[in-house]
């Protein structure tokens, strides 16, 4: 594992996790049955280390190959609006995203400029410099906290958070359900 590099001891990406699992499976056989010999696991380990190094080298040289082997970074929230197609493509539910945003101290989408879903499977948040009104991310069953939030005169789509006027169908997701946006706080701390 040491030959795979320093990243093996840090956060593992998909290829590194596959390499680690393969190494564990290959080395487990001679530990459990010593009569099998060490040559096959050593060959497997050498192939796994070589393949890991080659993939890492190609990924550093080619953005296209890196996207193919590691996946692309997805934008789940852009300018305080959910990107429903990217949520669907990434198999991320609104509830999972909202739970993460709440764990980071957000109460509505107007506080969020971007949310990236990184290739490693974690989220990166870029907050708004000037907080604006946005879709509430507080669960609807938590009426006590919902009533504490100041609402705005602006309405937003309940599904994606797009600003709406005249209660027409949402231009982004075609939803007809709207709610009052949670008021912005002005400048972010």
Would you summarize the structure shown here?
The protein is an alpha+beta fold and 189 residues long.
Question: How would you sum up this structure, described in words?
Answer:
The protein is α+β, with helices and mostly antiparallel strands. The protein has two domains: about 1-70, no CATH class; about 75-185, bsu07140 like domains (CRO Repressor). The protein has helices spanning about 15-30, 40-60, 65-70, 85-90, 95-105, 145-150; strands at about 75-80, 80, 110-115, 125, 130, 150-155, 165, 180, 185. The strands form three sheets. The chain has a four-stranded antiparallel β-sheet. A three-stranded antiparallel β-sheet has the order 7-6-8, with no helix packed on it. Helix 1 (about 15-30) runs antiparallel to helix 2 (about 40-60) and helix 2 crosses helix 3 (about 65-70). It is elongated and about 75 Å long. Residues about 5-10 have low confidence and may be disordered.
